[in-house]
Amino acid sequence: MNTSGSNPNPSATKRNASAGVTLLEVMIVLAIMVLVIGVAAPRFLDSFGRAKSQTALVQMANIKAAMQIYYLDVGRAPTAAQGLDALIRRPQGVQNWNGPYLDSAEGLTDPWGRRYQLRVPGEIAPFEIFSFGRDGQPGGEGEDRDIEA
Q1: pTM for the whole thing?
Q2: Residue 149 in 3-state DSSP?
């Protein structure tokens, strides 16, 4: 009989290193992962939406610069009927067109896959370029809001 108070079977208290993990340990790790993902995913998705809006602003700045060069060359902005395609192909009957002012028609597509819109005359400027955002509808909030350059 062991009277020293120590465990008579020392291997019973030590964990076998090759025994693997218990179901409880796996459940705890999964619970922690779900909590981290639950907190991080909305922030990540919000950042992704902001990135598309920022991309749209940069693209519209490029289109606006091309429109300003067109305006200087031709003396006016393209008509609503000519649209932004006037930056790629010479419109019928336009003198002093020195384009194309953009490399390709792909530059006229917003990050959501729709064409940028042109308002001539604009409410504030001779022309305005805008996108209806993610939902493709006027108005909206967040990622669905209209974006103007």
Answers
A1: 0.63
A2: coil
